[in-house]
Every structure is written in C-alpha cells, then in structure tokens.
Amino acid sequence: MTDLDIRIAAARGEIPADLVLRGGRVYDLVTGTLSEGDVAILGDRIVGVEADYEAHEVIDVSGLILVPGFIDTHLHVESSLVTPHEFDRCVTPHGVTTAICDPHEMANVIGAEGIRYFQKASETTVMDLRVQLSSCVPSTHMETSGATLEADDLEALRGHPSGIGLAEMMNYPGVIHRDPGIMAKLRAFEGGHVDGHCPLLSGRDLNAYAAAGIRTEHEATSAGEAAEKLRKGLRVLIREGSVSKDLLALQPLLTERTAAYMCLCTDDRNPLDIAEEGHLDHMIRTLIAHGTPTLAAYRAASLSAAEAFGLKDRGLVAPGYRADIVALRDLETCDIAHVICGGQLVEGALFEGRSELPPVGRGSVTLPQIDAATFRHATNAETAHVIGIREGQILTDHLVEDVAITDGDQRPDPARDLVRIAVIERHGRNGNVATGFVRGFGMTDGAIAATVCHDHHNLVAVGIDYDDLALAANRLAEIEGGFVVTQGGRVVAELALPVAGLMSLERFETVRDRLRDLRAAAKDLGVTLHEPFLQLAFLALPVIPALKITDRGMVDVERFEILE
After folding, report:
1. In the beta sheet, which residues pair with residue 99?
2. Nearest to residue 228, comparing CAs of 256, 258, 255, 248?
3. Residue 127 in contact with residue 390, Cβ under 8 Å?
4. N or C: at which end does the chain have fewer Cβ atoms within 10 angstroms?
5. Which of 215, 214, 146 is nearest to 183 (CA)?
6. Residue 193 Cα distances to 196, 211, 307, angstroms
C-alpha cells in the first residue's frame, strides 16, 4: 500500500495507528464545540477523531482539552539571542509548533549566508520553522549594513522546503514611490506571499501599499490603525514582544467576527521574558483574561494563522491535518500539559542528540579606534534633539532641550535624564560614529552597549561616563558582540553573542540567567526600563513617528544627529 492507502486504512480502523490520545476532548475551532473520542495519529498526521482507535502507543489525556498547535506568524529568531535549535528547545514546549521567521537580522550582518544558515537549521528543528526571504537588506538607504540583497540574490534562495514567500517589506516608501530595487523584488514574488510592515500608514498610501499584493501587517499599534488595515485586506498580526507590546491596544478588535483575519506574533522576544511569562501561550491567556472570546483567541493562534500563510495542512485537530496538538489542563489560562509536534510528544529527549550547525558570522565586530573622546557631542547650538522613549513601543518622541556647551561638548545630564547615545559602525564599511541624546533610561552612572541594533546591527551605546562608554564598546569587540554593562571603569555584566554579534552559542537557560544579571546591573546604574537592552536595540531605527513621504520615495524625518 502507498502512504495514502495506509493513512486511509488507519482512519477506518483497519490497521492500528502509531499513537492515540485517549480520554481528552477536542476543541473545534470551526464550531467552538468540544467533542469526545480518541485522536489517532499516523506518522505526522492526524487520521481520526471522535471514534475509538487502536494504536502502538496510547497517551492518556483524560480531563485535558486538545487544541491545534500554535503558529507564531512573524518573528526573528535572532531576537531570542540563541541559535535556531536552542530557540526550538525554548519555545516548542510553550505550544508553538510552527514559527514563521524572517532572518532579517542575520541577513543584514552577513547577507545570504545568514538566510542559508536558517534554512539548514529548519531541516532538523522539532517545530516546523518556516524561513521567509528577507526583503530589505539594508532596510533603507539610510542604513549602513554588513550586506546588501537584491532581487536576484533572493531568487537564488528560493525553493527551500521551509520557504513561504517574501519577508516583511519594511521599505514602504519604496513600495509607494516604486523604487526600482523594491519593485524588482515585488515582481519576483508577485502572486506569492509577501509580508507587510507599514507602521502608521493610512489613506491612499496604505491603499498603494496593499495594492502591491502585500497581505499581512504586524506594526499596528492602535485598534483604529488595525481596523483600517483589516478593511483594506491586510491580515493583522497582533504583536507582543519584549519591547513592542501591542496586545492590549488591539485586544478589543479581536472578536469571533474578526478572528478569521487576525493572528498572533511575537516579532522580538528574549528567553528571560519567555521564562517569566511565556510565548504565544502568554498572549492567549492575556487576551482571554481581558475579555476576548476563547474561540477568537485560539483561532488567531492557529487556524487563522495557517490560512493567512497558505498552510492548509494545520490549524485544526481533524483528520488529514498535521499532528500539532496542545493538550491543556485549562482552556482559559492556556495551562499546557503536553505538546505533540508533527506526531511526536515534545519532551527533553526529543531535542538532544542533534548536531548543532557550525556557527556563522564569527568575528563580525570591526570597530574604529574608540576612546572617551569618541563620545563627545560637538555642536554650535545650545539646543539638542533628543530621542524620547515610549516604554513598550518602538515608536519614539522627538524632543528638543536646552543643553549648555562646555569645552565644545554637550555633556549628559542625569538630573534631566539626558543620556548620551552613540552608534558606531561595526561592519568595517566606513567607521562612522554618531552621537546624540536619549531620555527615558533614567541612568545616573556607567554605560550599556550592544551589537543588537535594529536593523543595521551596528554598535549602539548609552551612558553617562565617557570612559565607561569606551570600555563597553571595546569589550564588545573582544567578545565578538553582545551586551555589556560597565560602571566605575570595569565590566559588571556581559553576554557574548558571537554568532554575527546577535546570537549566543550557549543554551537558552544560560542566556536567560545572563539577561537577569544584565538587567540587575542596569538597575544599579539607575535604569528604570523593564527591558533596557532590547529597548536600546530599537533606538537607532532610521524612521520615527514624524513621517513625511517625499517624491523621492524617502522618509524625511526630523531627528537628532545620529546616522549610522
């Protein structure tokens, strides 16, 4: 018999299944009802429900509710700060059986090699790791990245089994004004799936963006913004990461009526937040606690996500579907008892014995000469443009403050929460250094520096003391990138991220613990932000809320002196 014959025979009970889940109830995401009976699995497929089956193995799930595995519709594995295999081990037990990633961060450091690294990793992950092709490397012409990917480069990466389509099209001015390079990428993927990224876009410009065939959007930060995007045919992905927290703002929009067109994503979430709160399971329980209908929350987490990305073989606990199942003790709190991924029970042994991929992007941190003088801010005006942090968002405020000039330098002023920020080009392209001010850290001493700096991933540092800033930057070069906290002329906490300056070679538990140390060290500097390191990572984006799209297809922004 062929595999198809065997599957049908098992479904009819003519031959035993490989695995049966017995005693639980299936939560049907079409009708919202609970049904009883065995769930029979053959290989990685469900072959039967609502009937009695025999199997080579039986798992007793009495008293549990079975829901489809969760699908994270947009994330950057790099933001977990661990390798794809460690990400898999960290997140799959939280019920995430499919993750749709954009290796955009690695690609901006090392180009196509970074995408191929993720494609190779997807072949041996327990979860189904889907690898989109990064559309914006660099994100815009205003960034100095380590690599450039054009349409032909992306075409050469097509065809891998992990692929779905083109990852988030961040350069939305390039779409609207038909930049030739952007248009070449859109034409290459025309008729296929293209992810979106268009914060605050509205009106005719949003019409133009959607008319390009872009079908998803994860940047909405208000219910009004998300509602317009839904009306214009975009599937809205509710995001709740370590920095960008839009779940509560969009929660009122998620109903049983809209759930078919809304999904869940984390975008950027680190192991410490995963350990303390969870992953998509955290989003589900939070939505329900704030009044979202249970059916709407679970649809958004699986069935709607599968349909939005053309994954027709998952999203229901039903015959013929991929055997991705989460067994819950309680539906409302998303209390997970077991996870079945591709027909396998997720447990520790499933992740062991895999050969870790050889790391890529080693030695990617190349800095110019850095000393205390690097962080002076020379200007002729006694005013300063200041980045104002909005905690929980990547959007920032443009502030202007009076700052006196002393010996040709506008110095940090911790009494007014005016902290020095600097971005230093680290790809060996031009050695540029830019300095300015940021408000919102609350720092009173020392410095913090990182090579995680979206989306170009140059070195970014904030601090009060110039010697501590120089020490932090130079230490990052020594450890091949990562996070460093310095105070009083010494390194007080660090996390090495030698894989392209973005990911650790350690297990996720070690990274989690180092993040705790870093957070505590930052607090000792007076930092009041809950997540200072990833908040720092988003402060050097080339676009801020004061958007003006020009006829050249660029974004004309009033921003302080920071460049790359």
Report:
1. 72, 129
2. 258
3. no
4. N
5. 214
6. 10, 13, 12
What are the angstrom distances between the C-alpha of 325 and each of 41, 125, 284, 296, 322?
Answer: 11, 17, 15, 18, 9
Q: Report d(CA 527, CA 522) in Å as an integer.
A: 6
The helix/strand/coil state of 150 is coil
How far is 270 from 265, CA to CA, in rounded Å?
A: 13
CB count within 10 Å of CB 432 equals 13
Tell me if 182 sits within 8 A of 139, measured CB to CB.
no
Q: What's the CA gap between 120 and 490, in Å, rounded? A: 40
CA end-to-end span of the chain? 61
The pair of structure tokens assigned to 42 is 């053959």
Rounded to an integer, what distance in angstroms lies between the CA atom of residue 435 and that of residue 419?
10
Task: Provide the angle, in degrees to the nearest 10, between the axes of the packed helices 84-91 and 112-122.
Answer: 50
Per the listing, tokens 């110019």 go with: 368
**Per residue of the chain (564 residues), what is the pLDDT tens digit?**
789 999 999 999 999 999 999 999 999 999 999 999 999 999 999 999 999 999 999 999 999 999 999 999 999 999 999 999 999 999 999 999 999 999 999 999 999 999 999 999 999 999 999 999 999 999 888 889 999 999 999 999 999 999 999 999 999 999 999 999 999 999 999 999 999 999 999 999 999 999 999 999 999 999 999 999 999 999 999 999 988 899 999 999 999 999 999 999 999 998 989 999 999 999 999 999 999 999 999 999 999 999 999 999 999 999 999 999 999 999 999 999 999 999 999 998 899 888 878 999 999 999 999 999 999 998 888 899 999 998 877 788 999 999 999 999 999 999 999 999 999 999 999 999 999 999 999 999 999 999 999 889 999 999 999 999 999 999 999 999 999 999 999 999 999 999 999 999 999 999 999 999 999 999 999 999 988 988 898 888 764 333 333 333 333 333 333 333
State the Cα angle at 307 between 201 and 75, rounded to 5°: 55
Contact 404, 410 (CB under 8 A): yes
Which segments of 102-222 does DSSP mark as H helices, in order? Answer: 104-110, 112-122, 151-155, 172-176, 180-188, 203-211
Query: Counting beta carbons within 10 angstroms of the beta carbon of residue 265, is it exposed (0 to 12), middle (13 to 18) or buried (19 or more)?
Result: buried
User: Three-class SS of residue 38?
Assistant: strand
Cα–Cα dist 537/503, whole Å: 14
- Rounded to two decimals, what is the model's pTM? 0.92
